[in-house]
Design a protein that fits this description.
about 180 residues, mainly alpha, 8 helices, globular
Length: about 180
């Protein structure tokens, strides 16, 4: 199960990267088209759609890699038991909020499909197609949050840390530059 979930998060992150590459291609086509006098209709709309898709599809992967912004300066200085308790409370609150947002996004896609809503650009696109990657990304993010909560409760697995966070907690920073230079010579 762990390898499946890790692959799911990785694929979601890869899809997010593909969306960003597609945004770059759209912008490049628009710039080159402007030089040649060719208009790229709805390019802003499609770039915006892809940006939203990239954002939501990248949430789970970023969370699992420790890339989300966290304020751990305070919690990292607390005793271990208190830190674990705070992390568990935050994970439970996160699960509730993320599941609610996931439900609302799924319902938004459903409503857009039922009412056959279209985008308002030059090229009319069914909105449910545009909103679907957001809902899928949020579902995968919900799975990642629930996965992390279960791993934290049952296996005492700590929240993922970014490279900078791990580095800052590994050793104290020596601010005395002169003594560091003297020790090298």
């Amino acid at each position: 199960m762990r390898s499946f979930l890790d692959k799911l998060y990785l694929c979601s992150g890869a899809l997010s990267g593909i969306c960003i590459i597609a945004i770059c291609c759209i912008i490049l086509a628009r710039v080159i088209g402007r030089w040649l006098g060719i208009e790229a209709p709805s390019s802003d709309d499609f770039a915006g759609f892809l940006l939203a898709a990239a954002t939501f599809l990248g949430l789970a992967y970023t969370f699992r890699e420790g890339g989300h912004i966290r304020v751990s300066l305070f919690t990292s200085r607390l005793p271990t038991a208190v830190n674990k308790f705070i992390e568990r409370v935050i994970l439970f609150l996160g699960c509730g909020l993320i599941l609610y947002l996931c439900w609302q996004l799924i319902y938004l896609v459903y409503e857009s499909y039922i009412f056959d809503e279209l985008s308002s650009g030059y090229i009319a696109v069914p909105l449910w197609l545009v909103q679907l990657p957001l809902a899928i990304g949020m579902i995968i993010f919900s799975v990642a949050i629930i996965d992390q909560t279960i791993c934290h409760l049952l296996f005492d697995q700590a929240l993922p840390k970014s490279e900078e966070e791990a580095l800052s907690e590994s050793a104290p920073i020596d601010l005395n530059v002169s003594s560091a230079a003297e020790s090298k010579s």
